[in-house]
Amino acid sequence: MLKKEVTLGIDIGGTNTKVGIVDRDGECLANSVMATRAEEPIEFFLPRLYHTIDAMVSPFLESINILGIGIGAPNANFYTGLIEQPANLKWADKTPLAKLVEDNYKIPVKLTNDAKAAAIGEMKFGVAKGMKNFMVLTLGTGLGSGIVVNGEVVYGADGYAGEFGHVIVNANGRTCGGGRRGCLEAYVSATGICRTVYKLLADYPDPSELRDIPFHELSAEMITESALRGDKIALEAFEYTGRIFGMKLADLVAILSPEAIILFGGLTRSKELLFEPTRKYMEEYMFPIFRNKIKLLASGLEGANTAVLGASALMWNELDKTKV
Amino acid sequence: MLKKEVTLGIDIGGTNTKVGIVDRDGECLANSVMATRAEEPIEFFLPRLYHTIDAMVSPFLESINILGIGIGAPNANFYTGLIEQPANLKWADKTPLAKLVEDNYKIPVKLTNDAKAAAIGEMKFGVAKGMKNFMVLTLGTGLGSGIVVNGEVVYGADGYAGEFGHVIVNANGRTCGGGRRGCLEAYVSATGICRTVYKLLADYPDPSELRDIPFHELSAEMITESALRGDKIALEAFEYTGRIFGMKLADLVAILSPEAIILFGGLTRSKELLFEPTRKYMEEYMFPIFRNKIKLLASGLEGANTAVLGASALMWNELDKTKV
Questions:
Q1: How far apart are the C-alpha atoms of B187 and B208, rounded to whole Å?
Q2: Does A178 touch chain B (CB under 8 A)?
């Protein structure tokens, strides 16, 4: 029997690590999940990862041919295969994760961060099929970006291109981390919109159900629900977020002239509450030659296996390159 | 005798149009210049252009083999070969310039705008030799940009990527054109720094030799000369310009992680007066992982034939692509 060609996708998050077997069409044959245990060193993590993968793969051993492994992980460098100074993982400053996994399985392994993996995922399997110039923005705890230009992911000179979450909205604005002020992700992310709600509660006297919620219990989901119930402060928080986001997207468009901007991640579950003001202000602030040309799209990969699909797509993309 | 392979470079400016014969090493064998006469229709411009080219080429007819023509021009679209709605030329809304010249000479013709031509010029013949990720910013009357990612010029989905002069510094800031507010080029350009001097003369009571100069007579060169004589307002104008420029360059670095940023054009003749504050603020506002990595360079093509070299490099670059 001819074995089916597949790649493995691994997505390492701060809480969970997901793995999956993905074929060339983006079908997920199987998947599994384990706790990342961010406080553990890599020496404890890897045996658990291999065990999880082997258990998932074993029923398929006769029927699949694993061509390679793609990994999406925080602070991952595609060029070097290193995880460098991961803020949320107790690993060494420079962990050669790609090489470690490659040495174990003796098949090609490629590594990149989650937003770049998502961009490749959209290009291979999602709404960016056939597009050569687009970007994926992931709106979760922070704001990540994966940019594609001329059909290739932008890694830049050092592998760290795509830090769109750290463009500056206001040099005297909200603190971000490491003493920085006014980064976009301090405004436009699941945590950013919570900060905006508190700012608005301070600025305006309007009644709001959000006045009953302590800061540390507030979530983007709660703001979405309040907005859907017509809460003025919650609605204004989306307007405020969309104005800042739209203005910075207009800058991104002026620089790169993409065909589409694809939004992904927790905050996008608020759907048109976020999309409508973002689109409106993006068009308003946009340089006229780009107006009414740029598609603002929701991810085509939403679902349980999204991150695994992206990681797998990273390896499919590499395999396609070598085919020529 | 084996004929020398060359391309022609044509640079169409608002005032002058320059042409040159350039070999594969970026040596300019000959060049010529004619008035553009922006008020004339294209039907008058083209015969004069052909005459200028033919007169320049005729002494070399026995010794050169012209492989193609590259043209740098305002509002030029590489994808379509059109000049679209040129603000400073009395041509039709859409002039198929590449095709018109190609039909006349029966050799390949490529077209792009001046900043993108400059980027290719730096990559082939200037300080960006061997670089895969960099950008050239042209600081003249306006601010243009040519961006290279993964070794290729970024044209974007529609050919108009690289409008870095129109990212927004301040949504309520200086008017730019067409009702827009706060575009970068309203601050960082030869005209932008003149506006800054007038703002500073209004804001501060300090004595300045620039108080004697009417707005319409003020030039970037005069501000440079005043600054070199220690004039406080002129020096502060460069500091103000460098702060805004540095902050927006930090954004560009976060997005694209270039190896170098190359500055070009009239305002850069002020040298360290501009470079020093720009570098200082770029580093200050930069996301930490990029600090002390990005080279801020002066063009390696400065001189009379710069724009012609860039236009010629555009065609050399195309010829190299087809060689494989």
A1: 20
A2: yes
